Amino acid sequence: MIRVKSYFANTVEEALVLGRQDFGDEALLLESKRTREGEEHLGAYEVVIGCPRSDTPASPAPEPALPSGGPAVRPAVDSPSIRAELDRMSNLIQHLAANTLGMRMAELQPLAAELARADLAAELVQQVVHRVQARCAEGGARSTPALLVAAREALSRMIRCEPDLGRAGDAQRTIALVGPPGCGKTTTLVKLAMRLGLQCQKSIAFVTTDTYRIAAVDQLQAYAAILGVPCAVVEHGGALAHALSSLRGKDLVFIDTPGFSPGDWDLASEWSRALLAHRQIATQLVLNGATRTADVDRLLADWRIFDPQSLIFTHLDETAATGSILTAAIHSGLPISFLSAGQSVPEDLDPAGEEALLAFLAQPAAARSAAA
Ligand SMILES: Nc1nc2c(ncn2[C@@H]2O[C@H](COP(=O)(O)OP(=O)(O)O)[C@@H](O)[C@H]2O)c(=O)[nH]1
Ligand SMILES: [Mg+2]
Q1: Structural domain of residue 30, as residue ranges?
Q2: Count: domains in the chain
Q3: Is 209 in the pocket of ligand 1 (CB under 6 A)?
Q4: Atom of ligand 1 nearest to the CA of 341
Q5: pLDDT of residue 66
Q6: Pair 154, 71 in one domain
Q7: In this predicted model, what pLDDT tens digit does every residue of 153-211 receive, in sequence order?
Q8: Does the beta carbon of 341 sit less than 6 angstroms from any atom of ligand 1?
Q9: At a CB cut-off of 8 Å and minimum separation 6, what does 357 contact?
């Protein structure tokens, strides 16, 4: 038999502590999700924890004395849908209990904490932990370094790094960069042009559609003048076809766009239609790599209208917590093409690679702070 209990808390870690107080070292994290609308006062997350039932628990624990206003524990609820959900989870636990050869939550908690600290979405923390559990059940080592390696392997299978821009097979590659204001589109565009164009003896041209922000055109034209490349200014979607056809002889055309805010969404939709009208344009969605995971899904949903080919992340020099980048890549299903980690043009741009994205799993935080 299986015991299952649902906890509300403001962090998954907090809920795990409560679960271990109830179930001891047998506690298994089964599910974690954002609290439903209307129940947020109970805590930001609903976390389901279970353990195989025995007459005498492995580590009997006293009832937790919850501080007032602290995380809430919800007793089992008897309704058909919850009963069905509990049955599903019960099967899952039995499967895990049978297959993990005693790999317990206590052993996996440091890994779960490390992933949560890196700001990986709660349900992805859970998925990675389950994959690591399954891996250990197959006979993998269980030391902390081995768990970190298993987590890296699990995550690297969930993301794609593809630093290849443009439509394969097109003689001319036409690349548009879109993204929120200030995320680094113009700077990244110039870095890409230098790396993929000038350094490879390819002919390049710039197009800017950012005629809305003061000095935005001047910014790109200044770079174009330094690099000696043409820069066409396009003021409305209808003029894009003419600009592109005038640049037909170029190997690479880079299109810069305005940084639309949520209030500019009519304009954003207009420009998305204009770009999508040209099949040869491969759009890159540029996002600040220091964006919080809580904001990632909304950004992805908003910028979907541009049908991006892949994702570029900037400002990696400002954060070591790459969990939100991994979350964005996994939730969108899009590959990551390039990573920018600084303002220097063109040096601070690298093809996307797992090394940089999974560096936080190279050694646990405790070891890092001890070494510091
Ligand atoms: N620290 C850091 N700053 C960056 C990075 N990429 C761009 N920036 C800076 O962010 C600011 C906005 O960049 P810009 O390219 O104009 O953004 P845009 O509005 O999206 O075109 C500039 O000061 C850039 O130098 C990066 O990877 N790291
Ligand atoms: Mg710009």
Answers
A1: 2-158
A2: 2
A3: no
A4: 27
A5: 42
A6: yes
A7: 999 999 999 998 988 888 899 999 999 999 999 999 999 999 999 888 999 999 999 99
A8: yes
A9: 159, 161, 322, 325, 326, 336, 339
